[in-house]
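Hi everyone,

Forwarding the result from last night's run.
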Amino acid sequence: MDLFTSATTLTSIPIRDGELAFLPQLRLPWPNEEVLARLIAETGWREETVLVYGKRHLQPRLSAWHGDKAYRYSGLQLAPLPFTPLLDTIRRAAEAATGRRYNSVLLNYYRDGRDSMGMHSDDEPELGPEPAIASVSFGATRPFILRHKVTKETLRLPLTDGSLLFMAGRTQANWMHGINKTAKPLGGRVNLTFRNIA
């Protein structure tokens, strides 16, 4: 049996002006805890400074960029590192689950509940007008917040250990998303957002 063939499929999440789907467990050849430990140990994590409303701020998390193309967001120019065998295996599993191709991945390491991601959209020109993004999470569950840019409608989706959230269509054009800080004691979490850079 093909390693990346699974009876489980993405379940659509109804959303206004966008496309969302969720898979509780991405099929991989290793248990989630091993993948998390390897991602933390094998990744060349960086603490980046980003430009927000004209001011530079230290990101409240660690990050890394792997793939075929450079990427620019919030005043950052990220030069790509090559895909590691582990990242390539996760990428192929995400491609099999979503039916899309990805040539790059942004990794974010949330060390505890104090690490976060501000509200934003992945709408950079090099992603195209309707980017497909596969967001894979390992480790502590964190609520993923989506807010409609016009109606301000808000969704909160718990991104669980080993899960995949697929965002496509006009989601990035019409919605913002982020991860809030929390005072609740939490373990580490690594999130990988696979995307295709034109």
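The helical segments are 32-42, 85-98, 171-174.

Cheers,
N.
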